């Protein structure tokens, strides 16, 4: 701009100063110093107010300084001064073109117009540029006419300049592009300019034909189709393009759509166009639409619907096509689809105007007509709305007639009648007016008037099928004569069907006529089938066609109709078809298919109770009882009067075992129908099943109540049934009922005459049943049972009946078993065996035949008797089998001589006979509470199972039953058993009372009384009783036992020598195992190793095998411990385990002894405990404790194994046995160990603050249990010391000191507590970081000297010396600790002393103290430690010593690597070794080994090593 300004001459130049100022302004603008330029310009304007250049410069500078208003004003001022000068106009244009200028487009257009004027005679290129800008501006403002005119000016300018054809072609295309975006909004002039542009572009194209030209032609034709008045031009353009491009379908498609939209008949040209397009492209939408319209005109309605639907899927924006589709759909009575098509047509038409107005009216009228055919109130209202939208429809009589029909469908009779009367007056020849009148009369059932009206309508418009149909309906409902008259109803229906072959209702009524009037089922079925094919929603026709097919025996046709409907049916529709097919499947035994179909029917009508009932039957037949029950319940909810549904629901509840619910439902039926036999029968059966269940659970009284109610209902049922029908089954049930009543009266001891009368009635009823049905095996069997009862005793009739029963039904286990019982009762053993054998072969699991065989075996004395009785208990519970088996088990157990026989090992041991017999006998005793012998056996078995309480109850019950009996011997035996069981329970007083209440003359009774006196503490009375027993004892073994017992009493009386004498006396004659055990135990108690060893040696000679193996190992271990032979203890138990690996007690013993006598092998002890727990879960309370102790010794903790660790195991042990104080003490130790581990790993401890709680718990548990005093004191002292140690280590020194002082108050002379007190006090002093005075050190030394036998005390003192830098004193203390540990045989003590000594020496070495004593001490101590155990800490200390001596030596790396990479080493030790090894490797600059070590550190999560690596690598 500034450059331009230099060439401009100022209008007035008064002086040189003005020129200089303008030059300065120009230079300032060139240098972008716009404010400076403004100053110069303002100076000029002061001199020359109208200086053009100054105003232009101000505009430019202000624009650049973002001062648009000032710039605009300056430019306008300049324009006022010189309106024909370019500079100001250019500046103003540039200003308006800036993006921040708003609402200036109109002004900009004016500026462009002025520039065009100024450039027109000058610079043509700039004129064209401005012209293009003006076109774009008009296009943005959507001023299409201005766009067109300006484009034409540009093109004329180019033509005048002689532009080439290609350039002009591009300009015409640009004009088309700018104008065709919104052709609908263009006025006629703009449209004509656009069409002219298209024509010029087409004629100016270079390549003809070509793709660009072809596309341009398509756009031209598309544009022409938007101008309704350019029809001729459109047709010419299409024909021209077809001629130019004969293979392109587009112009034909446009032409076809043009013909479709042109209302009226199809011309030959249109048909030719459709055919040609389809030949060219068979999938062309317009072509298919044209073919569909052709089919419609030819009355091929289905083909028309198909083609029009297909064509509209491809070309859906064709309103006329949618209208034609709706018309075709209406012709085939697809009314709802026709309505949708009309809606599509109306939507495609948009706002009706011009040619679209006629299509709009046609679509609305067709829509209304279709909605009226639907004959629905909502549809009619919608039809009225459609009719109201028809422009000019109020004057159309046909539209008025349609409105009248719509009012009629809604029920507005008055409005419909008014319209009808008006039409008849104004248009007397209009058929629709008479039809409307007929519809009104028909709806009012004025059939005579309706007949006249429809006849008048037919006279004026005979080709309308609807009129004939309604006339036929009028005759059908007018009277029976007109219905039956072939010339009336039938003729009209036939005419309607002929005129409209798609009118399904006409065919339906033809079917009604042929079925109900003519009786021609075959023809009727054909009509119904045709009607249903035309209208698949016509349930009446479909149902009738199916029913007639079934009646005619044509099931295939019926099923095909149903299948066709169900395949096409949407969910929730076609209920009738689903229901009929479901019932068909139900009748033909296909319940699964029936269920699916009936469910589909219910989706259509969920409230159909009959359908729910049918579905319930289908579920029942399928075996889905729970779902069937829900269906029947739903049916009864919907219709409470459906008694059958309620009954079936109750029956299903009965089948499912919900007897209480079934009873309630049956009773609900009886409230409505008092004597409904199925309900009465069901109630009786339910109560009977409840009684059976109660009997199985031994709820006998409840069972009796249920049976009484069952009998009451069965009585009503049979009484009602006999009145209704005399059936053999009812006579049989009645006979059995009489028999059961007789059985009951026999059991309660009623008069025999009454019993005989009942049995006679039973016999007669059963004979009646057999006469009515001689082929029923059940009736014969029942007759045989009654005949063979003892009161009748007709065994011949019984035999005959049973034989007839098995002849009637060969697979008849009950009859064969009853026949076997009959033979057994009459002494025919072989025949009985054969009968039972047949029953067993027929049903091996039938219980009673096995009991029969067991009784036969018992009778003949077979060895299989016990096994047979056992088998009966396995099959099921039966009193005879239970007592028989228990009897044989007890008899076998009483025979002590058979313990090693195969028979005993199999029947008793292998078959687990004792608990099995105890279980079945407990059930028997509950069912038979007055059987004394059963209670004696029950008590005997309970004693064997160590069920002391139950044994005492059984013996007491037996004694009470025998108390008043004549058999005093049996009563005395029961009382002795009762006394023995009371003594076992610790009820000595009651036991003495029982024993002294009967005469005691036999050995067992006297011994029992002596034991009771002993347990009571009446030792003198016990001695007298034992001496009496000794006088009556017959065997030497019994005498030895008595002498052993007397020796125990003498020991109790502190007469040790007398006890020894008695025990030696036992061993001299025939030593018993018990006496040798007692003698050995006496030696152990008195610390007499010689006596204990000799007794043990003798004991091992006499007792061998697995009998008493645990006690033998325990005694032997105690003897070896007394001898100081720790290794022998472990070997003894291990040897026993090798011999008896399945003995959990031995494994448990090994686990308990390992921490005490083999502390180097704690992991083995833990494994032994786990094995014991696996073998016998019941020993968990002791074994889990032992496992935890072993794991603590082994150093196991939660970080190693979260599931198997000391804390988890001891917690389990406490859960199993919370009263064991030792377990709580071990829990304290486990918590302390876990806290120690987490401290070592720099994490927060979890089990804190539990010390005092656990100490209190241990004290409480020791007080509750009767434990030895020394054991209690030792346990409580340990817990107190442990609690103080834990408090000290967690920093709670004041609490620890208070606890020490509290303990010393109760026990002042307790060296361990005193030492702990000093340790706590000393720790408080050490925390002050001051040196301890000599007097305090001396006091501490004296305290340790008072506990001189404690290695830990010396180690603690060594730590104190070490903290005071008294290294020699610390060394002496550690050596003293080592000496004590060696003397005490403490492996742990020796190892810890050696390691601490080595660490002390290493600390001094690391401080680089020049003294060879300390390195040699490290080497010596670690070497000794490694001899004791492959200790990784010792190896680390040796490696660190080597590192301190020679850091860079190869041996240093080798020793450190051995610690780092040795599997199983603790991470805390490995981490230290890794730290030093990393420094060594960096010193050697061994990058490869550094990488290996760092990978190892990452794998193990060693953060310290990784941080050190970062520091070393950074410094390197």
Structural commentary:
The chain is an all-alpha fold and 1516 residues long. It has 82 helices and no strands. The chain is flat, with a radius of gyration of 60 Å. Helices cover 78% and strands 0% of the residues.
Which properties best describe this structure?
mainly alpha, flat, 1516 residues
Shape descriptor reads flat
Q: What is the residue-averaged pLDDT?
A: 79
Contiguous helical run count: 82
Roughly what fraction of the amino acids lie in strands? under 5%
Number of strands: 0
The parts where pLDDT drops under 50 for at least 5 residues are 1-13
The residue fraction in helices comes out at over 70%
Structural class of the secondary elements? mainly alpha
Please outline the major beta sheet.
none
Distance between the termini: 67 Å
> How large, in whole angstroms, is the Cα Rg?
60 Å
Q: What is the structure about, briefly put?
A:
78% of the residues lie in helices and 0% in strands. It has 1516 residues and is mostly helical.
Topology:
Blueprint: H1 2-7, H2 16-30, H3 34-47, H4 52-64, H5 68-81, H6 86-97, H7 105-120, H8 124-140, H9 144-160, H10 165-179, H11 188-203, H12 211-224, H13 231-244, H14 250-261, H15 268-280, H16 285-297, H17 301-314, H18 319-331, H19 335-349, H20 356-374, H21 377-388, H22 397-410, H23 413-426, H24 431-443, H25 447-460, H26 465-478, H27 480-484, H28 486-499, H29 504-518, H30 521-534, H31 539-551, H32 555-568, H33 575-587, H34 591-604, H35 609-622, H36 625-638, H37 643-655, H38 659-672, H39 677-696, H40 700-724, H41 728-748, H42 752-772, H43 777-787, H44 795-808, H45 813-825, H46 829-842, H47 847-860, H48 865-875, H49 879-894, H50 902-910, H51 913-927, H52 932-944, H53 948-962, H54 968-984, H55 988-996, H56 1003-1016, H57 1019-1032, H58 1036-1052, H59 1056-1069, H60 1073-1085, H61 1089-1102, H62 1109-1123, H63 1126-1139, H64 1144-1157, H65 1162-1175, H66 1180-1194, H67 1206-1216, H68 1221-1240, H69 1251-1264, H70 1269-1289, H71 1293-1306, H72 1311-1326, H73 1334-1346, H74 1351-1363, H75 1367-1384, H76 1387-1406, H77 1413-1428, H78 1432-1445, H79 1450-1461, H80 1467-1484, ...
Helix pairs in contact: 2-3, 2-4, 3-4, 4-5, 4-6, 5-6, 6-7, 7-8, 8-9, 9-10, 9-11, 10-11, 11-12, 12-13, 13-14, 14-15, 14-16, 15-16, 16-17, 16-18, 17-18, 18-19, 18-20, 19-20, 20-21, 20-22, 21-22, 22-23, 22-24, 23-24, 24-25, 25-26, 26-28, 28-29, 29-30, 30-31, 31-32, 32-33, 33-34, 33-35, ...
């Amino acid at each position: 701009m500034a450059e331009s300004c230099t060439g401009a001459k100022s209008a007035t130049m008064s002086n040189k100063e003005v020129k200089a100022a303008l030059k300065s302004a120009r230079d300032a603008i060139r240098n972008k110093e716009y404010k400076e330029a403004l100053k110069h310009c303002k100076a000029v304007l002061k001199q020359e107010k109208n200086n053009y250049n100054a105003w232009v410069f101000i505009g430019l500078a202000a624009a650049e300084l973002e001062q648009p208003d000032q710039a605009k004003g300056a430019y306008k001022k300049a324009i006022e001064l010189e309106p024909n000068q370019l500079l100001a106009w250019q500046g103003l244009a540039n200003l308006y073109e800036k993006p921040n200028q708003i609402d200036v487009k109109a002004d900009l257009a004016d500026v462009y117009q002025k520039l065009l004027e100024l450039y027109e005679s000058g610079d043509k290129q700039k004129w064209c540029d401005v012209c293009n800008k003006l076109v774009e501006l008009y296009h943005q403002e959507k001023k299409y006419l201005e766009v067109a005119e300006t484009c034409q000016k540009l093109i004329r300018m180019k033509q005048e300049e002689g532009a080439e054809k290609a350039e002009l072609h591009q300009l015409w295309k640009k004009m088309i592009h700018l104008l065709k975006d919104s052709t609908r909004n263009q006025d006629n002039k703009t449209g004509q300019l656009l069409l002219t542009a298209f024509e010029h572009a087409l004629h100016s194209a270079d390549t003809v034909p070509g793709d660009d030209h072809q596309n341009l032609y398509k756009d031209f034709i598309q544009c022409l189709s938007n101008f309704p008045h350019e029809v001729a031009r459109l047709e010419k353009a299409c024909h021209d393009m077809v001629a130019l491009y004969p293979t392109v379908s587009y112009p034909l498609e446009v032409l076809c759509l043009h013909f479709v939209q042109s209302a009226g008949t199809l011309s030959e040209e249109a048909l030719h166009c459709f055919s040609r397009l389809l030949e060219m492209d068979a999938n062309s939408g317009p072509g298919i639409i044209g073919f569909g319209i052709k089919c419609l005109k030819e009355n091929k309605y289905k083909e028309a619907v198909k083609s029009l639907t297909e064509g509209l899927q491809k070309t859906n924006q064709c309103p006329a096509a949618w209208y034609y589709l709706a018309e075709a759909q209406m012709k085939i009575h697809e009314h709802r689809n026709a309505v949708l098509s009309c809606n599509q047509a109306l939507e495609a038409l948009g706002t009706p105007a011009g040619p679209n107005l006629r299509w709009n009216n046609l679509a609305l009228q067709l829509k209304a007509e279709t909605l009226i055919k639907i004959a629905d109130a909502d549809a009619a209202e919608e039809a009225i709305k459609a009719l109201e939208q028809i422009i000019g429809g109020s004057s159309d009589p046909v539209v008025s007639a349609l409105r009248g029909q719509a009012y009629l469908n809604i029920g507005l009779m008055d409005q419909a009648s008014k319209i009808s009367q008006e039409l008849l007056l104004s248009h007397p020849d209009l058929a629709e007016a008479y039809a409307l009148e007929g519809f009104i009369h028909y709806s009012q059932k004025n059939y005579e008037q309706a007949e006249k009206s429809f006849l008048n309508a037919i006279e004026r418009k005979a080709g309308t099928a609807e009129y004939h149909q309604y006339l036929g309906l009028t005759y059908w409902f007018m009277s029976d004569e007109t219905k039956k008259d072939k010339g009336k109803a039938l003729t009209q229906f036939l005419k309607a069907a002929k005129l409209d072959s798609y009118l399904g209702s006409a065919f339906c009524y033809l079917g009604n006529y042929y079925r109900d009037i003519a009786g021609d089922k075959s023809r009727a079925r054909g009509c119904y089938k045709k009607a249903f094919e035309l209208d698949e929603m016509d349930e009446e026709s479909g149902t009738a066609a199916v029913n007639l097919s079934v009646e005619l025996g044509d099931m295939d046709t019926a099923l095909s109709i149903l299948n066709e409907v169900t395949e096409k049916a949407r969910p929730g529709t076609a209920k009738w078809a689903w229901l009929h097919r479901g019932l068909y499947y139900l009748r033909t035994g296909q319940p699964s298919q029936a269920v699916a179909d009936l469910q589909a029917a219910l989706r259509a009508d969920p409230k159909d109770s009959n359908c729910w009932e049918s579905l319930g039957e289908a579920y029942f037949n399928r075996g889905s009882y729970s779902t069937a029950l829900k269906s029947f319940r739903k049916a009864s909810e919907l219709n409470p009067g459906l008694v059958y549904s309620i009954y079936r629901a109750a029956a299903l509840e009965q089948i499912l075992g919900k007897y209480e619910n079934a009873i309630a439902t049956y009773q609900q039926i009886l409230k409505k129908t008092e004597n409904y036999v199925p309900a009465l029968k069901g109630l009786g059966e339910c109560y009977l099943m409840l009684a059976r269940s109660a009997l199985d659970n031994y709820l006998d009284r409840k069972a009796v109540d249920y049976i009484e109610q069952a009998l009451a209902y069965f009585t009503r049922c049979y009484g009602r049934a006999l009145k209704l029908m005399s059936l053999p089954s009812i006579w049989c049930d009645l006979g059995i009922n009489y028999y059961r009543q007789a059985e009951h009266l026999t059991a309660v001891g009623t008069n025999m005459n009454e019993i005989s009368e009942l049995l006679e009635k039973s016999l007669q009823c059963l004979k009646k049943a057999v006469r009515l049905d001689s082929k029923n095996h059940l009736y014969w069997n029942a007759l045989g049972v009654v005949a063979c009862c003892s009161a009748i005793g007709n065994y011949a009739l019984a035999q005959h009946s049973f034989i007839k029963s098995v002849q009637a039904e060969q697979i008849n286990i009950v009859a064969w078993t009853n026949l076997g019982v009959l033979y057994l009762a009459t002494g025919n053993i072989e025949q009985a065996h054969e009968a039972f054998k047949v029953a067993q072969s027929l049903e091996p699991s039938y219980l009673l035949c096995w009991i029969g065989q067991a009784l036969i075996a018992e009778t003949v004395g077979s060895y299989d008797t016990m096994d047979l009785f056992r088998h009966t208990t396995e099959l099921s519970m039966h009193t005879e089998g239970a007592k028989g088996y228990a009897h044989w088990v007890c008899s076998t157990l009483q025979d002590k001589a058979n313990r090693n026989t195969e028979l005993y090992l199999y029947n008793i041991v292998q078959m687990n006979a004792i608990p099995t017999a105890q279980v079945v006998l407990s059930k028997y005793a509950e069912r038979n509470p007055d059987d004394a012998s059963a209670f004696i056996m029950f008590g005997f078995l309970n004693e064997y199972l160590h069920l002391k309480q139950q044994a005492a109850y059984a013996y007491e019950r037996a004694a009470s039953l025998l108390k008043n009996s004549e058999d005093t011997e049996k009563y005395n035996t029961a009382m002795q058993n009762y006394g023995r069981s009371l003594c076992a329970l610790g009820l000595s007083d009651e036991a003495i009372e029982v024993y002294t209440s009967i005469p005691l003359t036999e050995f067992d009774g006297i011994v029992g009384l002596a034991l009771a006196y002993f347990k009571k503490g009446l030792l003198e009375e016990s001695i007298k009783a034992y001496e009496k027993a000794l006088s009556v004892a017959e065997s030497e073994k019994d005498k030895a036992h008595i002498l052993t017992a007397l020796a125990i009493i003498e020991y109790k009386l502190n007469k040790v020598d007398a006890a020894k004498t008695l025990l030696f006396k036992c061993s001299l004659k025939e030593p018993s195992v018990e006496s040798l055990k007692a003698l050995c135990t006496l030696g152990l108690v008195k610390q007499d190793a010689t006596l204990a060893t000799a007794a043990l040696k003798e004991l091992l000679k006499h007792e061998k095998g697995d009998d008493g193996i645990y006690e033998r190992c325990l005694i032997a271990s105690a003897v070896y411990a007394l001898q100081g032979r720790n290794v022998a203890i472990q070997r003894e138990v291990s040897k026993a385990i090798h011999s008896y690996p399945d003995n959990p007690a031995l494994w448990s013993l090994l686990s308990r002894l390992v921490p005490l006598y083999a502390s180097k092998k704690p992991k083995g002890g833990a494994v032994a405990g786990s094995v014991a727990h696996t073998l016998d879960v019941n020993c968990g309370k002791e074994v889990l404790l032992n496992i935890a102790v072993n794991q603590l010794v082994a150093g196991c903790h939660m970080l190693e194994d979260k599931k198997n660790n000391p804390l988890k195991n001891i917690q389990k042990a406490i859960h199993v046995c919370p009263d064991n104080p030792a377990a709580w003490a071990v829990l304290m130790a486990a918590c302390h160990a876990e806290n120690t581990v987490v401290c070592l790993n720099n994490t927060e401890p979890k089990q804190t603050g539990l010390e005092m709680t656990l100490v209190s718990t241990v004290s409480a548990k020791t007080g509750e249990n009767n434990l030895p005093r020394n054991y209690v004191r030792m346990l409580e002292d340990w817990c107190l010391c442990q609690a103080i140690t834990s408090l000290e280590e967690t920093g709670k020194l004041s609490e620890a000191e208070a606890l020490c002082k509290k303990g010393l108050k109760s026990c002042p002379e307790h060296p361990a507590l005193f030492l702990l007190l000093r340790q706590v006090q000393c720790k408080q002093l050490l925390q002050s970081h001051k040196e301890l005075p000599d007097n305090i050190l001396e006091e501490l030394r004296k305290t340790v000297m008072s506990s001189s036998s404690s290695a830990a005390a010396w180690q603690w003192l060594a730590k104190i010396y070490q903290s005071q830098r008294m290294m020699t004193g610390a060394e002496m203390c550690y050596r003293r600790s080592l000496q004590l540990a060696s003397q005490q045989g403490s492996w742990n003590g020796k190892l810890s002393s050696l390691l601490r000594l080595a660490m002390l020496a290493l600390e001094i070495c690391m401080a680089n103290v020049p003294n060879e004593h300390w390195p040699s001490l490290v080497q010596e101590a670690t070497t000794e430690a490694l001899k004791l155990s492959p200790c990784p800490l010792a190896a680390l200390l040796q490696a660190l010593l080597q590192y301190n001596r020679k850091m860079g030596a190869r041996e240093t790396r080798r020793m450190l690597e051995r610690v780092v990479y040795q599997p199983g080493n603790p991470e805390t030790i490995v981490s230290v070794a890794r730290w030093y090894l990393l420094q060594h490797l960096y010193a050697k600059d061994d990058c490869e080994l550094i990488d290996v070590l760092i990978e190892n550190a990452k794998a193990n999560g060693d953060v310290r090593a990784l941080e050190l690596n970062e520091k070393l690598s950074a410094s390197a």
